[in-house]
Write a structure and sequence with these properties.
- With 447 residues, the chain is α/β, with parallel strands linked by helices.
- The relative contact order is 0.08.
- Bound molecules: nicotinamide-adenine-dinucleotide.
């Protein structure tokens, strides 16, 4: 390292020469792909995770995320990628990017436990000139009100964050993740990266670092602006999905095909973006993130009515699917109690191996409560056990002998399913995704 340079210039120079050491905390759906992108760019990356099984698997060159082949881990290892649970190594990192979970607690309030624990773990190892970036989705104010006070209070040398240009200390920024699992249409590098630092140098350093792996960075004035940007993006999706979910129910009463309506509206070259109805929200983001903002808004004596209404509509969708299934069985002089139902798809969306907040889990539980005998098929999940909100203890049933089920319920429209065959072989298909739209058959009920 050139010791004549200021800490800022030294970090800039190490980023430009790819010598900067990057620590990524949380080797999950966000952190691991990010680590691989930096490794591709020849940075030496260390992945930190509290889960020893993940650390062991990564160091053995393996992958636990379906869309990331182990060859990519092996490739990254050639650039020096390794994983660890030992926070002592933070001291040798030039930049530390935090990608830990931000769930809701049982009262639907932000659970920042993982962010706090991470801050407590890295604080003792901070050193001057380091760049700390929070990527986890959260309410505006988290970086400055939660992360920063812990980093400053818990480091033994009394090191402080740089708040004004020219001060000495460590740099802090927030940069939201815009990962869209399963989306093959946009390369990760082509997704612009928003960065908001505590002051200009932190923003510039974060922009330089991310500028090595993203085509475009979008600097904003504060971490809170960057935090709010991410929430706006997800609330926009949540509200628009609620709108089409509500209109779907109206269209069904009016015997209008909502998908045909959306396709026709999508031909408008301006002012309209297509969102599609479904069985309810899933994934780590859309069902959760909006409530981070509605919780924070209460501190300002403000009620986020759009978020609450969208939440109400979207949360009711699995119940609507159950009602439609019961009605469809009723038409055939059958009832849900005792019916044999095959649920197709456990994942929260098409072609991903992610179960978090999946509407399938709620739907299976509701079906069981109603007395149905439930099986599932999902190529991504050979078994499903117990999670934070469910306890199913089931194994994947092969897609055979479909005629034995009173209903086959499509909850996730994986592309590997042969829908023509499924419709041909089933007594009744209840389709909550529009997966069978192109098929004309008497035994399909849309919901
Ligand atoms: N998954 C997505 O598509 C997506 C998209 C955009 C934003 N986000 C946001 O990114 C953040 C991370 O999400 P994710 O999907 O990667 O979560 P994840 O659960 O897949 O991964 C998080 C990882 O962090 C690890 N971890 C937890 N506490 C830790 C600690 N103290 N130290 C080290 N490791 C720790 C966990 O073991 C886990 O491996 C969340 O805030 C989420 O809202 C996720």
């Amino acid at each position: 390292m050139d010791t004549s340079l200021s800490p800022t210039a030294a970090l800039e120079s190490r980023i430009a020469s790819r010598q900067a050491r990057i620590g990524i905390i949380g080797m999950g759906y966000v952190g691991l792909p990010l680590a691989l992108l930096f490794s591709e760019e020849r940075f030496h990356v260390t992945g930190f995770d509290v889960d020893p099984a993940k650390v062991e698997q990564l160091n053995a060159g393996g992958s636990y995320i379906v869309r990331i082949p182990s060859t990519e881990i092996a490739q990254a290892q050639r650039s020096g990628f390794c994983a660890t649970s030992s926070y002592g190594e933070i001291a040798s990192m030039d930049a530390v990017l935090i990608c830990v979970p931000t769930p809701l607690d049982e009262f639907h309030q932000p659970d920042l436990r993982y962010v706090r624990e991470t801050a407590e773990a890295i604080a003792p190892h901070l050193r001057e000139g380091q760049l700390i970036v929070l990527e986890s989705t959260t309410y505006p104010g988290t970086t400055e009100e939660v992360l920063l006070p812990i980093l400053e209070a818990e480091n033994p040398s009394g090191l402080r964050a740089v708040r004004r240009n020219g001060e000495r200390g460590f740099y802090v920024a927030f940069s939201p993740e815009r990962e869209d699992p399963g989306n093959e249409t946009v390369a990760r590098r082509d997704i612009p990266k928003v960065v908001g630092g505590l002051e200009n140098t932190a923003t510039a350093l974060a922009a330089s670092l991310y500028g090595t792996i993203f085509q475009r960075t979008v600097p904003v004035s504060t971490p809170a602006v960057a935090e709010m940007t991410k929430l706006l993006e997800n609330i926009y999706r949540c509200v628009n999905i609620a709108l089409v979910n509500e209109l779907k129910q109206l269209c069904e009463r009016m015997e209008i095909d909502i998908f045909e309506v959306i396709d026709a509206a999508s031909t408008k070259p301006f002012g309209f973006q297509a969102f599609y109805p479904g069985p309810g929200l899933g994934g780590h983001c859309i069902p959760i993130d909006p409530f981070y903002l509605s919780w924070k808004a209460k501190q300002f004596d403000f009620h986020t009515r759009f978020i609450e209404l969208a939440g109400e509509v979207n949360t009711a969708m699995p119940y609507y699917v159950i009602d439609r299934t019961a009605n469809a069985l009723n038409q055939r002089k059958k009832c849900l109690n005792g019916a044999r139902i095959l649920v197709l798809g456990l994942a929260y969306k098409r072609d991903v191996d992610d179960l978090r907040e999946s509407p399938s889990l709620t739907i299976i539980e509701l079906l069981r409560k109603a007395g149905a005998e439930v099986c599932y098929n999902d190529p991504f999940f050979p078994t499903v056990g117990r999670g934070r909100h469910y306890d199913l203890n089931m194994s994947c049933t092969p897609l055979e002998d479909l005629g034995q089920y009173d209903a086959v319920l499509i909850v996730t429209d994986h592309t590997s399913y042969d829908y023509v065959r499924i419709v041909a072989e089933s007594q009744l298909v209840v389709d909550s995704r529009g997966a069978t739209r192109g098929i004309r058959a008497e035994n399909i009920v849309h919901c």
